[in-house]
Specification:
Layout lengths: L7 E5 L4 H12 L3 E6 L2 H12 L5 E5 L5 H15 L4 E4 L14 H29 L3 E6 L12 H20 L4 E7 L23 H9 L1 H11 L4 H13 L4 E3 L5 H18 L7
Parallel strand pairs: 1-2, 1-4, 2-3, 4-5, 5-6, 6-7
Amino acid sequence: MRDLAGKTAFVTGAASGIGLGIATALAQAGMKVMLCDIEEAALARAVEGLKATNADVDGCKADVSLKKELRAAADATIARYGKVHLLVNNAGIGGGGPYGYWTEADWDWTISVNLMAVIWGIEIFGPLIERHGEGGHVVSTASTAGLISSSSMPYNVSKYGVVALSEGLRAELAPRGIGVSVLCPGFVRTQIVNSRRNLPDRFGRPNEDALQALRSSERFQVIVDRVSKGIDPVDVGELVREGVENDWPYIFTDNEFEPLIEARFASIREGFDRIRDRRPQH
C-alpha cells in the first residue's frame, strides 16, 4: 500500500496509546480512519481531537473480544466509508502474572483480547478487503515479548500467538494482494499497566489480595517505571505508517531487545547443532 491517501483504515484500541498514535499517523497520511475502542469517553475525545485537525475520522465502541461487537464495528465502517483497506488489530491488555499468580479469569481475558480478537478481526475484515480488489494490509500489534519470553505471563503467550498468526498469514494473504505486518514494540508510554480499568464483568473480578501482591512485586514496579519512560506513541504510529507503505513483515520501535532476540535464535541453532551428527543409540 504505497499510496495511503483516500483509503480507509480500521484501528482497534484507538482511543489512546499506540492505537491513537497509529490513527493519528494514518489520518495525517490522508487516510479515512475508523477508531474503535471499548472506552467510550476516551474514544469520543480522540475522535474530536483528530477532527479538529480536519482529519476524516469517526468512532465506534466495541469490546473486540466479543465477535458480534467486532462484526458490528465492521458493518459501521462499511456504512460510513464504503470500503476498508487497512486493518490494525491493536487493542490489547496487560492482564495476568507469571506462574504462582495465574487465574483462569486472567488467562481467559488476556487470550480473548490479545489473540482471539486479532483472529476475529482478520476473519471479519479480510473478506471486506478482498472484496473491492484494490489490495490492502493487516497490522497486528504483538510485542517484543512475542519473540522473547522472560516469564510465563498470559500476555507473553498471547503475543507469541499474534507473531505466529501474522507470519503464517503473510504467506497466505500475499497472493490475494494483502500485506501483513506484525508490530513488536518495546516499552511505549501507554496505559497498559492500568488495563483492568476496562475489565468486562463477565470475566469476574480479580482476587484483591493476589492483585495487590502482584502490583507490589518488584517486577511489576519495574514495568510501571519502564512504561512511564517509554517511546512516544506518535513515533510508533509513524513507524507503522512507514511499515504499511513498504510492506515490512516486522515493525520494531527500538533496538533495546535485539541482543536478547539474537540470543534466543542462537540458542535455537545450538539445539540443532546438538543433533546434527547424532546417530541413534539403539
